[in-house]
Amino acid sequence: MLGPVSVPVPSPNFHLGYVAEEDRLLLSVDVAPDQEYAMALTRRLTKALIAALVDRVAKGCTESLGDNPALRDTLLSFEHATAVADADASGARRARAAQKPLVAAPRLIRDIKMKPTPDGGVILALDDHQRALSIELNAERLHSFVAGILDVALGAGWDLPAPAAWLDRAAATAPPAALLH
Predict the structure, then answer these.
(1) Which of 62, 93, 123, 153: CA 20 to 30 A from 30?
(2) pTM for the complete prediction?
(3) Distance between CA atoms of 132 and 10, rounded to whole angstroms?
(4) How far is Cα 155 from Cα 152, in angstroms, rounded to an integer?
């Protein structure tokens, strides 16, 4: 049996998808030019992850603006829509042309740790109890990552409620959904 293997991925190409047969969201990262490593997220874990990421984004905004919910939600809606639009324009958020072979069959994520970074982003440590992945998301990529997860969940028919008012506003003005790449 393999022991835990850490795969450091400071700024990876990550991809989001959905496996209907298992009703799981799939997060994969490039570990070689022609291979990916994938981990699966359940609905419950996806909902908890989104809530934690949204809380992190809101906390960063509250620290700089104070505790005015209307002002915070307006600013976050604008930041979110801008970050997602920039990712769409740059090609960072686009449908995948082709899937690469997986290094191993996707395993269910068992543990997620989140470490805030000074720039308003996070480092996600994802562990499936066989391998661990670290993904660094700056503030802009964090918005794009949240939007990508919500896009895939919506496409899968998951009824995840928008975890924040500013996401509802941003969704109303956001461009068509695409998967992260």
Answers:
(1) 153
(2) 0.80
(3) 13
(4) 5
Provide the residue ranges of all domains of the chain, joining segments of one domain with +.
Answer: 5-173
Report the 10 Å Cβ neighbour count for 83. 24
The residue type of 95 is A
Classify 16 as helix, strand or coil: strand
Amino acid, res. 43: R
Q: Tell whether the torsion through CA atoms of 152, 155, 161 and 165 is positive or negative.
A: positive
Per-residue pLDDT of the chain (181 residues; tens, 9 = 90+): 334 444 444 456 788 888 899 999 999 888 888 888 889 999 999 999 999 999 888 877 666 666 777 887 888 888 888 888 888 777 676 665 567 888 888 899 999 999 999 888 899 999 999 888 888 998 888 988 998 899 899 889 998 877 788 776 555 444 444 444 4
> Between vectors from CA 15 to CA 11 and to CA 16, what angle results, nearest 5°?
130
* Alpha-carbon distances, residue 148 vs 94, 104, 115, 142 (angstroms): 10, 23, 20, 10
Q: In what order do the strands lie in the sheet with 24-32?
A: 14-19, 24-32, 35-41, 107-108
Q: How far apart are CA 92 and CA 87, in angstroms?
A: 5
Angle, vertex CA 133, rays to CA 176 and CA 163, nearest 5: 40
